[in-house]
Design brief:
Number of strands: 0
Radius of gyration: 19 Å
């Protein structure tokens, strides 16, 4: 096969490159929103910590930041319109996140002896990939996601 034909065969079609760039942009925006959301969560957590038990402060801060996360992700990350249906389903995407973070928080504080002021930050890192995939599934229309064979 001539060199030019091999290059064409190996090249990613322009639509594929565009989709890959779009998904990379989405992942980067998700990361930015996640950073803002983490700062929001942690700020709320630290403000609530002197007022209540650490796990209650964690839960309330988590719920407050989840509402902000919904709006930042719909408008900025996935560039879609928020709806009541998406708002109602969005907490479902965070159940896994909450479970992973909660288990991590408990393990870090009680088993690893980590300071309860900083343990939620480490526990949150583990949950990031799960949160991205689940929120993308809820917040974007099915046609906007690649089909199973295209991934």
């Amino acid at each position: 096969m001539p060199l030019e034909e091999r290059r064409r065969a190996a090249a990613v079609p322009p639509a594929g490159r565009s989709a890959a760039r779009g998904q990379l942009g989405q992942i980067l925006r998700f990361g930015l929103v996640g950073g803002v959301n983490t700062v929001t969560f942690y700020g709320c957590y630290r403000l609530l910590l002197p007022l209540m038990a650490y796990f209650a402060a964690y839960t309330l801060a988590f719920l407050l930041s989840m509402v902000g996360s919904f709006f930042m992700n719909t408008y900025f990350t996935y560039r879609t319109r928020p709806t009541w249906r998406k708002f109602a389903l969005f907490p479902l995407t965070n159940i896994t996140n909450y479970a992973v973070q909660s288990a991590g928080l408990f393990a870090l504080v009680h088993w690893a002896g980590m300071d309860k002021k900083f343990a939620p930050l480490l526990a949150a890192l583990v949950a990031i990939p799960f949160t991205y995939l689940l929120s993308r599934r809820i917040l974007t229309p099915a046609g906007a996601r690649p089909a199973a064979g295209e991934r």
